[in-house]
Amino acid sequence: GGRPPPPSPVGPGGRGLAGRNRCTKAESGGLACFLPKMTPVTRQEVLGLYRKIFRIAKKWQSASGRTEETLQEKEYIKNEAKTLFRKNKHVTDPELIKQCIEECQARIEIGLHYNIPYPRPIHLPPMGLAHKQGRTLRHQEKLRKISKPIYLKSHDDVS
């Protein structure tokens, strides 16, 4: 017959095709299992950020220098990273992935600069954004959401 044989269920190294979607021991944080639909470059960038966060957490020292605070902040950094990366594991829209990467980078930079692992809050008065005559509170809420800095986009979803 002129038909090619069906694809073999055994992948490279005899591991089988199912082995491709499983985590390796080095990726046991779970993130690599969640990145099947990204381009290789984006996948590497996300994994790099994930590893960078855990390296930062490992070396983190609180501003006060107290051991108890340092341990709490290290734990917060790790838990926040795990929660947000797992929350966004099914994101496939390249634009949304880009926004998540930008938020992650911004939070890393701000955290390192101010030596505070928690997102810096913003303070807007309840009706402090300009609005046109006759607009409602819903419009204010929309303006507040739009004006939220990139490093706080996912903060309300998690905390």
In short:
This protein has 159 residues and is mainly α. The protein has a domain at 40-118. The chain has helices spanning 40-59, 67-87, 94-114, 137-147, 155-158.
Order of helices and strands: HHHHH
Oligomer: single chain
User: Into which percent range does the helicity of residues fall?
Assistant: 40-55%
- What's the pLDDT, averaged over the residues? 74
How does the helix and strand content classify structurally?
mainly alpha
Note the total helix count.
5
Radius of gyration over C-alpha positions, nearest whole angstrom:
21 Å
Give the percentage of residues in beta strands: under 5%
Measure the end-to-end span: 61 Å
Poorly predicted ranges (pLDDT <50, ≥5 residues)?
Answer: 6-30
Largest sheet: none
Query: What's the total count of β strands?
Result: 0
Provide keyphrases for this structure.
159 residues; mainly alpha
Structure, described:
The protein has 159 residues and is an all-alpha fold. The protein has a domain of 79 residues. It is built from five helices and no strands. Helix 1 runs parallel beside helix 3. The protein is flat. About 16% of the residues have low confidence. Belongs to the complex I LYR family.
Element layout with pairings:
Layout: H1 40-59, H2 67-87, H3 94-114, H4 137-147, H5 155-158
